[in-house]
Each structure stands twice: as structure tokens, then as C-alpha cells.
Design goal:
This protein is mostly helical. The chain folds into two domains: about 55 residues, no CATH class; about 110 residues, no CATH class. It is built from nine helices and no strands. The longest helix has 22 residues. The termini are far apart. The mean pLDDT is about 85.
Length: about 190
């Protein structure tokens, strides 16, 4: 698809003007300092724009206390798309974990699902609650989040990565449907 066709599709899908798109593409190219082509920058701009619209149009908008949280969340979703674009599956797994962590903790706190016996609960404790309380009827998926996505977030530490399995496309493709299903439940559940 050529650049002009892509721009037309983005205008149609997002309602952005041609100048707004060109400005966002310029910013995207500066952000990635020449690592991406015009087409790549357009792809990421489109993803980011759709993400912002999705947050506003779904129940996700109820998960944020303020605009700062919403922007950070949207940026994390856009980063996930970027990592996938660059086939950086390690950081895809880390981003999926961060996104699910925010949504699960926010959901649990709002619904007074607080891990007992822990003064400073972490993501692990909330996942245990999600498993025990069978949040969204997805006990098996929460166990996969516990065993894989949460654990892979530790791979930011080189030592952990060196002494473990390599995170490749297969790992990502295995966990992507789990992430998408749980993310879908959050998108359709208001707080």
C-alpha cells in the first residue's frame, strides 16, 4: 500500500486531518530516530490513534483516575504494537504483563478484591486473587499469566534471560490470545 492510500485509510478510520497525520508521522520518525520508514511510521501512527479512540469508546475509560493515567496506558499499548512491529517479542511479553497488571489491580481495588495477609500486594498477589476468585471465569488464563507473562517481565534482567528460555515468536504467539481475551474482558467491563 502506498503512503497516500495509507493516509486516506487513517483519515477514514480516525477522523484525523492529513496535516495531523503528517505531524504525528514526523514525531514518530523522530521518536525512533530513523529506524522506521514512512510506511512504518504511518502504521504506528494509525495504531496509536486507534488505541486512543478505543480507550474513549469502551469501558476502559472507566479505569483511569486522570488524563495522565490514560496517556500512559495508551502509550503502553502503542509500545506493544511497536515491539510487535519490530519483532521484539521479549518486550511484547513485558508490555502485555504491564498492561494486564494495571487493569487487574485497578479492577480488584475498585471491586474490593484485596489480597489478604499482605501489606503491600504485588501483581503476583492480585493474579492469585484472580485465580482464586475466577475473575471473568478465566482461571486457566490467569494461571498462564502467572506462569508466563508475569514471569517474563523479569527478563528485563539480563541474568534471568541468559539462564532461561529465549523469548521468541512462538512464546509471543502462544500468549497473545491469552492477553487478547483478558484485555477484551476488561474493555467490556466498566468499573
Amino acid at each position: 500500500m502506498n503512503v497516500e492510500t495509507y493516509i486516506s485509510k487513517i483519515i477514514e478510520k480516525t477522523g484525523l486531518t492529513r496535516n495531523e497525520i503528517k505531524s504525528k508521522v514526523w514525531i514518530m520518525k523522530r521518536r525512533y530516530k530513523g529506524l522506521i520508514t514512512d510506511e512504518g511510521a504511518l502504521f504506528l501512527t494509525a495504531k496509536e490513534s486507534v488505541i486512543v479512540q478505543e480507550i474513549s469508546a469502551t469501558s476502559l475509560k472507566t479505569y483511569f483516575k486522570n488524563i495522565k493515567e490514560r496517556k500512559i496506558f495508551a502509550n503502553n499499548l502503542a509500545s506493544l504494537a511497536c515491539f510487535k512491529f519490530f519483532s521484539d517479542y521479549k518486550y511484547c511479553m513485558i508490555a502485555m504483563g504491564s498492561i494486564l497488571e494495571f487493569l487487574l489491580i485497578t479492577y480488584c481495588r475498585h471491586n474490593n478484591i484485596i489480597p489478604s495477609g499482605v501489606s503491600d500486594p504485588k501483581f503476583y498477589h492480585y493474579i492469585k486473587e484472580a485465580i482464586d476468585k475466577d475473575i471473568f471465569g478465566q482461571k486457566k488464563r490467569w494461571k498462564l499469566v502467572q506462569d508466563y507473562i508475569r514471569d517474563f517481565r523479569n527478563y528485563v534482567h539480563i541474568e534471568k534471560e541468559v539462564n532461561s528460555d529465549y523469548i521468541d515468536k512462538n512464546w509471543y504467539e502462544t500468549m497473545k490470545p491469552v492477553f487478547k481475551k483478558l484485555y477484551g474482558y476488561f474493555k467490556s467491563t466498566s468499573l
